[in-house]
Amino acid sequence: MPNPLPVPQPDHSKTFSSPVSKLEWIPLTSLEKMSQTEYDVLIAGTGAGGGAVLWRLCQQWGNNGKKIGVVEAGDLLLPTNLMNVQTMNHLDYLDIAYNDPQFAIPIPGTKLRQVIALGGRTLKWSVVSPRMYAAVASRDWPVPEREMELYYSIAEQAMGVTDYYTKGSPINEIFLNRLWSSEYAEAMNEPMAADLEPTKYGEIHSNVFFSSIAFLAQALNPRPYDLAVLARAVRVITERGRARGLQVMTPDKRSFELKAKNVVLCASTIETPRILYHSGIRGRAIGHYLTNHSYAIGKATFNHKDYPYVLGTIGILIPETGERPFQVQIGGPNGYRFYHDTQTPFKEQLEMNIAGVGNVESRFENQILFNPNVRNEYGMPEAQVQLTYSDADLAVLGLAEEAVKHVSSILQTPMVSLNLQEALAGDHESGTCRMGRDPDTSGTNPYGQVHGISGLYVADNSVLPFLGAANPTLTTVALAMRTADYIIRSSM
Questions:
Q1: Strand, coil or helix: 310
Q2: Are 210 and 203 in contact (CB under 8 A)?
Q3: C-alpha span between 113 and 281 (Å, rounded)
Q4: Which residue, 196, 206, 223, 232, has most beta carbons within 10 Å?
């Protein structure tokens, strides 16, 4: 049994400092005012799940008089995905996304990172948005395949998922044909949440790469909602088995009770189960079944002179299948995966990434432990992370490693490095409030409602019953929209 690793509490002097704090680029509401309102739905968290719930509620309800409130523990940081910032290139983006304390709150001894800001982790994600193989192929997935297909389609349309970002790139087409001529007939252009519509008729499309800020902005069109930042949800208020609101605290430790008929927790895989634990909601599965991806990350090179002068961008996905419990992502050229410059320097030797992303088993013993004897500055229990690979996980990682080498050979791009990532790393942690039908093995029902508590829902990565090999964001958004529709039906 490994030693659990503590999750640090953020330093507000760093985490919540905002470069645009004097400019409220989205309407904000004070907690004092919000405490005087009873909300039909109160959402905690503004990442992919929280943004999707809000967008769907506003879209479906319109301006019907229902009251929606949103609280975010972080501050205003960026009004868009970091990749949309004009001064960014791919290398600058990676440096800021994984080293800047405003975008990456590290967990000592691990490579896990938290983002606490309006928009959450979608401020810096890669926007690669495949459907999850297990969500439409596994008998154990708690949502019917037909419903998953429907909500995937809704989510893809709302996020602007497309395979056109790399379509037509000369080098991408060359590599795809090499893969198709080998054993990878499923290789495809990466599906990406990227708005490629041109600006015309005065309609501006300046946010190419998706973040949940787009959901927050679009939700303002059909109806108003109340949003408070620097407002940390610490406890769910319940009465006779039903959610009645949230206790929320500010960085200066002022406490407010916000009333609501329905509460949706979208605070993250670590913070959502911590809130539930602190609220006395301690189902057997809550905090357990922590899951992440395994990674075999390769770097390969190629000579520009061997390819057309205009290379274009590389973005290829070899998806997970029933016979392949991992996926392979191919991206590059490094430094120019995306760029804002009018010209790129000609370099003879260019690098690219070939990454194998492995399926990790969902196991009870992988968990977030909560220590009631050690409290953070908000009086909440210390969270400790415990996650290891099983023998089966290591076997899958080995297969992914061999696939990366094989793909490098097929593409005729010599491998210069290949690293296997440790278990406590990455950005896709999930499963700690997994949905299912059995309260002994799941934290919520198939609609995201916490077992035993009416009106309390979870809609972030923590509800995923298992992870597969795909980026979880699209699946989390699809499930969050489905949860929103369930809340709407239940409120009639």
A1: coil
A2: no
A3: 26
A4: 232
Instruction: Give the number of other CB atoms < 10 A from CB of residue 43.
Output: 33
Judge whether 265 and 275 are in contact, CB under 8 Å.
yes
Peptide bond connecting 333 to the previous residue in cis, omega within 30 degrees of 0? yes
Helices (H) and strands (E) in the chain, counts: 11, 23
Mind listing the pLDDT tens digit for each residue in 190-233? 999 999 999 889 988 889 999 999 999 999 999 999 999 999 99
| CB distance 311 to 304 below 8 Å | yes
Name the residue among 137, 78, 126, 131 with its Cα closest to residue 103.
78
Mean pLDDT taken over the chain: 92
Count the alpha carbons within 13 Å of 74 in the hemisphere toward its beta carbon: 30
pTM: 0.94
Q: What are phi and psi of 369, to 5 degrees?
A: -95, 145
Phi, psi of 125 (to 5 degrees): -80, 165
Contact residues for 109 (Cβ-Cβ < 8 A; gap 6+): 5, 424
Instruction: Sort 298 into a burial class: Cβ within 10 Å, 0-12 / 13-18 / 19+.
Output: buried
Catalogue all structural domains in the chain, each as residue range(s) with its CATH number.
Answer: 15-490 (3.50.50.60)
The confidence band for 426, taking pLDDT boundaries of 50, 70 and 90, is confident
Strands 263-265 and 294-303: unpaired
Q: How far is CA 273 from the centre of its chain?
A: 16
Contact 274, 254 (CB under 8 A): no
- Residue 270 phi/psi, 5-degree rounding, is -90, -45
The string of DSSP codes covering 92-160 is HHHHHHHH-TTT-EE-TTSEEEE--BTTGGGGS---B-PPPHHHHH-TT-SS-HHHHHHHHHHHHHHHT
CB 99: neighbour CB atoms within 10 A? 11
